[in-house]
Amino acid sequence: MTVMRRGIAVMAGMAAGVLLLSVILQDLESQTGVLRYQQHREQHSEEELAPCIVCDGEGLCTHLPIIRIETGGQTIPGRPYADAKGDTVGFYTGDWGEEEILVQFSSVSGEGVWHHAWDEATDQGTALFRYRGNSSRWFTKGNFLLKTVEEDHPEVDRRMALLGMESGKEWALHGPFLDKTLLRNYMCMNLAAEVMGTWVPDTRFCELILDGDYQGVYLLMETIDVDEKRLALSSYTPGDPVFSYLIRIEQNTDPRKVLNSFSAYSYRMEPGRNLELLYPGTSYQTSQVKAYVQADYNEAERILYSSRMTEDPNAWKETFDADSLVNYYILMEFLSINDAFGASTYFYRDARGRLAIGPVWDFNNALDNFYRPLEENEFLLSQRSWYAMLMQDEEFVERVISRYRQLRQGILSEERLVAYGEEIVEWLGSAIDRNFEVWGYSFDPEKLDSRERRRPGKGSMETLRSVNPSSHEEAVEQMVNYMVNRGRWLDEHIDSLRQYCHPSRFAS
Fold first, then answer.
1. DSSP string spanning 345-394?
2. Which of 177, 446, 488, 500 is close enough to 139 for a disulfide, judged by CB 3.0 to 4.6 Å?
3. What are phi and psi of 382, to 5 degrees?
4. Considering the chain, what is the average pLDDT of its residues?
């Protein structure tokens, strides 16, 4: 099966053409100020490369970069285990009780050439390694965290620029498994950078070899970290009375980093979630530091959840970054991110600015890839957490509607998104087939654990087979159809958000 015959006719029929799309994207970049490296447009496709003359076609020969990891036979820590109810209660450690193991890694990358499993390394070194994620830790195809360190001093971080990304010390290896399209995290991260207009983790497709065994298509991703090359907040100096911070709402949080939040105390946070302090880092998290962040964040939430929202609609604007809240809302609604304000939700405040939401993370469940099917025709966030209060503000609602209309004329236009997805599929090429030579059994939901597959909606006529795609082509078609229908429904109903700020809702 050739790439051009992958059953994505719905995409092809709506695409305006790669050349036109490239012009549109460049124009959008100039509008947003986000000059983002997009691998599928910057690196050669299979069709653009001359035939390989150094291999016989028996081994791995790919246009994608390769990541190789050698554990030396060690048990990789971080797999979860459950209680009798099936709830995650802990994580397995390494052979000697380690939460992370030392491994050797290397990468093979280069523009305009084929890559092979035996090629000389472009980059190599020592790293700390473990499984990562929440629900994805249960998937057979693992997600990993890679922290690059000095070989002779593993307690010392080593900054590296892997696969052409900005130098850093911590990387996520995301292995799409529930997402049978292989596209969502890559595609949505790039879209998010354009919508948010701020830093969003960079991504690169690659193929992973773990202890000599081929593992399929992966996505090497920057992690969310405070760094001049990532989230550029002002540096913390011990004793500063006012300082920048980064926090998140998450499951399975480190109890040493948990903050007492107003939303948790008032039961406005989803059960089983906590507010976790990420920056300043653990070594600086004294009782005074935690007290300052708690007080600042809780005061901000009190402004939202108090009568001041209706009595003084401008009060929250002095504390919160309104642009981030507007853009985040539109992005989450359009992509149908059910985890918003439930997991992987980040907030930051620079000492020099207002409290903002972001950076964004984890789009594995986007566009109806949640464990249960999501409706195309409903708002997910309008009455959830902060947005239940923000929607009372007429000005905020009007900003959301106006910004949404603007985005649908460009970044989130139907024609652009459909063509964009097609472009990525064509660029991945035969890597898709190689991935499913290993993981193709996952198209049979009967062969999967209940955590590794989607479930029919309660009371619906859906079946296990109907909600789980039977091929990559079908997975892509399902995603595209949902995306198109979601956008059209929002086009028709976005104005109805005005109901939430109508005076009649607050009349006694």
1. EEEEE-TTS-EEE------TTTTT-SSS---SSS-SSTTSTHHHHHTT-H
2. 177
3. -60, -25
4. 87
